[in-house]
Design brief:
four-stranded antiparallel beta sheet; about 425 residues; FAD/NAD(P)-binding domain; single chain; alpha/beta
């Protein structure tokens, strides 16, 4: 490989209390919480909207549950605004369903209200660490390259791009072999006859149709590695979100691999629509309404924190004294690492754990860099635990905890690891 030297001085563009990298669910929670505690906040987002996989990723619904107060605000505000312009399916959609374009508007209004500054179409290029503490990050966009000086940095990039750049140790995927969960490009169809349509919500949902059982038909007729049928009613009439494209062996931290995943998933959309028209009643006249501008990456880096959440912690519904997230709940949603449907290690229909679990503060604290917080699916956790806490409802709660910790540490002039957890709990608890 050839190299060139880059020796350019870059300007200090911003000097803020809290720099939040990524405007997805975790970044939203962190930014709003930190701002409400009086911190000046800048969010750097690579796309042209807030919400990440919830909006640009065209996810059907938030799923799972947590103690997030900001999430409930988003649900209520989106529902109220959407009622005026098309939310009609109250009987089929809970408030955790996502009216994507309305939610984009709601999130921006929330940020404006809290005076959170956002930079769209901007990427974080490099963390800057001095004497073991992060002091900000280099960013780049159409205006050029510059430095954001920050007292605290929250990594809500999903893949942990900032933490990786800062030198936090990590591993990728499954501990045994490094394999990562497949990726998906969500898309939305219209023209569905709700009076006859079916909406299988899980891999293990079996429905007998005139031409056969729906999941068996999917495995037989859809192009590998696609093969499962997941369909979700949407707030607008006759529209359905399809969680059916599938690309395996994709590394979301590698640009070429990521691009391959996009090509693979997008190539499956037309065959899936033809399949639905042919085999699924109510979908005979469905048509492509739109596809996500952000591919759904489920798993990449797992970072080493002061504490690590494990499979057993979730199965035992462990209550940590130093919790910063409460009422977390979901299943082991491990998508097949080698094909379609649920992986053999995943548990959905047979999920017996009905109790909530907690996440300790140490999972948000990288072991070797001060001033940096992990937030969202990149916190310190095992492959199996990650398949549970990566759900958006838990990620936004992790963001709120990170935002609270960042603001409190500045107010109290303490290192992040020295902040009293009870002070964070007073803010994010119930």
């Amino acid at each position: 490989m050839q190299y060139i030297n880059e020796k350019n001085e870059i300007p200090v563009l911003y000097d803020v209390d809290v720099l939040v990298c990524g405007g997805g669910p975790a970044g939203i929670g962190a930014a709003i919480q930190a701002a409400r505690l009086g911190a000046s906040v800048l969010v750097v987002e690579s796309l042209g909207c807030l919400g990440g996989i919830a909006t640009a990723g065209m996810m059907s619904h938030w799923g799972g549950r947590s103690s997030s107060k900001v999430m409930q605000e988003i649900f209520e505000l989106t529902y109220e605004k959407a009622k005026d312009i098309g939310w009609t399916n109250e009987d089929r959609c809970n408030k955790d369903a996502i009216y994507h374009d309305v939610q984009k508007i709601v999130l921006e209004e929330m940020f404006l209200k809290e005076r959170v500054k956002v930079l769209y179409y901007t990427i974080v290029c490099k963390a800057v660490v001095e004497n073991g503490s992060i002091i900000g990050a280099i960013i780049e966009n159409k205006s050029g390259r510059g430095f954001v000086k920050a007292k605290r940095v929250v990594d809500s990039t999903g893949d942990g791009d900032v933490a990786a750049s800062a030198g936090v140790p990590y591993f990728k995927g499954r501990e045994s072999d490094g394999r990562m969960q497949p990726c998906t490009m969500m898309f939305k169809i219209a023209g569905v006859d709700y009076s006859r349509a079916v909406f299988p919500p899980s891999f293990e949902t079996t429905i007998e149709l005139p031409k056969g059982e729906i999941q068996a038909l999917g495995k037989e007729h859809l192009p590998f590695p696609a093969g499962h049928v997941l369909l979700y009613a949407q707030p607008t009439p006759g529209t359905v979100c399809c969680n059916m494209t599938n690309a395996i062996e994709i590394d979301g931290t590698n640009a070429e691999s990521l691009t391959k995943g996009v090509f693979t998933c997008r190539s499956q959309i037309v065959p899936i629509i033809k399949f639905l028209r042919e085999y699924v009643p109510g979908y005979e006249n469905c048509w492509l309404m739109g596809s996500a501008s952000l591919i759904g990456i489920r798993e990449t880096r797992h970072f080493e924190g002061l504490e690590t959440l494990t499979k057993d912690d979730i199965l035992e519904a462990k209550y940590f004294d130093n919790w910063v997230v409460r009422r977390a709940w979901f299943n082991f949603d491990v998508h097949n690492l080698t094909g379609a449907s649920l992986d053999k290690t995943g548990i959905q229909k047979n999920w017996k754990q009905k109790n909530d679990y907690t996440i300790p503060y140490g999972c948000l604290l990288p072991k070797n860099v001060e001033g940096l917080l992990l937030s969202g699916r990149n916190i310190s956790g095992s492959h199996m635990a990650h398949s549970n806490f990566r759900i958006m409802s838990v990620c936004i709660a992790l963001g709120e905890a990170a935002g609270a910790a960042a603001a409190l540490s500045i107010k109290q002039n303490k290192r992040l690891r020295d902040v009293e957890v009870k002070d964070i709990q007073k803010i994010v608890g119930e």
